[in-house]
């Protein structure tokens, strides 16, 4: 081809049907965007309507948040007379089984990335964190979560209280402090959050909970991807009725011990 010749123009008919469809969609989106930017916000009525919707959304979320908090406090206060004797018995059992503190305190990540210390009954030997690195190759979970079905760091009492989820009971004090809720996504540790993909960060858009949709759907038997999907489903659907439903489902989930280790 000489310098004076131009490249042949490919007629529209030569384009694939898919390319033409994509082109039409892009042109339609551009026209809609132009109409929206030029007209929508020129109307005083439209502006007022948007303000009212935003105010209603904020008020609704605030009311739901306050109802959830009030529900948590009422349930915890009602359960406290039954929980305190269990805490006393567990303290004796843990002390007799292995040396170390009764409670285990670990930094966790809460709503919108705010960190706090999560309380649990100690179910492992005191050198558990130091031994974790040597066990990473035997991880039974996937992606960012570390779980072992036969973790050698777990004590004899620890295996029992983990199976029955009794080790989570001290987290009612996190609920009283407002750091956790009865129902919500499980609070991750900072090193897990550091490995999150962008969409997985949405797990932090809710107050973490002692139990949740993931806990009543298989717990540690679930893949991390499915875990995230269930947490995001809860966040999008959360309500007081949903919390009551999950709490009721938690009872048979704990009794069967499915996915707990």
Secondary-structure content class: mainly alpha
Radius of gyration (CA) equals: 26 Å
* Uncertain segments: 1-10
Query: How large is the count of helical segments?
Result: 8
Average predicted local confidence, pLDDT: 85
What is the ordering of alpha helices and beta strands? HHEEHHHEHEHH
Can you tell me the number of structural domains? Answer: 1
Major sheet: order of its strands?
A: 1-2
> In whole angstroms, how far apart are the ends?
72 Å
Largest sheet composition: 2 strands, antiparallel
What share of the residues does DSSP label as strand, in percent? 5-15%
Helix content: 40-55%
* Overall body shape: globular
Can you give a write-up of this model?
51% of the residues lie in helices and 8% in strands. Mean pLDDT is 85; it is low at 1-10. It is mainly alpha-helical. Strands 1-2 form a two-stranded antiparallel ribbon. Strands 3-4 form a two-stranded parallel ribbon. It has one domain (66-256). It is built from eight helices and four strands; from the N terminus they run H-H-E-E-H-H-H-E-H-E-H-H. The protein has helices at residues 17-39, 44-97, 128-135, 156-163, 172-176, 190-193, 224-237, 240-256, and strands spanning 103-109, 115-121, 181-183, 209-211. The relative contact order is 0.10.
Overview in brief:
It is built from 8 helices and 4 strands.
């Amino acid at each position: 081809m000489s310098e004076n010749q131009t490249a042949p123009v490919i007629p529209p008919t030569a384009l694939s049907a898919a390319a033409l469809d994509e082109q039409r969609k892009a042109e339609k989106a551009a026209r809609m965007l132009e109409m929206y930017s030029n007209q929508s916000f020129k109307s005083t009525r439209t502006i007022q309507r948007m303000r009212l919707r935003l105010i209603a959304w904020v008020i609704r979320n605030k009311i739901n948040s306050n109802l959830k908090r009030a529900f948590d406090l009422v349930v915890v206060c009602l359960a406290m007379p039954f929980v305190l004797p269990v805490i006393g018995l567990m303290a004796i059992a843990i002390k007799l089984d292995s040396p170390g503190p009764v409670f285990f305190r670990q930094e966790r990540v809460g709503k919108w990335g705010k960190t706090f210390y999560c309380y649990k009954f100690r179910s492992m030997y005191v050198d558990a964190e130091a031994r974790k690195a040597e066990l990473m190759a035997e991880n039974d979970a996937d992606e960012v979560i570390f779980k072992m079905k036969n973790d050698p760091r777990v004590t004899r009492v620890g295996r029992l209280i983990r199976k029955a989820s009794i080790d989570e009971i001290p987290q009612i004090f996190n609920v009283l402090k407002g750091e956790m809720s009865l129902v919500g996504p499980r609070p991750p540790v900072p090193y897990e959050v550091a490995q999150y993909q962008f969409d997985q960060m949405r797990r932090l858009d809710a107050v973490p909970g002692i139990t949740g949709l993931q806990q009543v759907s298989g717990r540690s038997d679930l893949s991390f991807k499915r875990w995230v999907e269930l947490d995001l489903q809860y966040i999008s659907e959360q309500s007081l009725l949903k919390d009551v439903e999950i709490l009721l489902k938690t009872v048979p989930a704990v009794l069967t011990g499915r996915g707990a280790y």
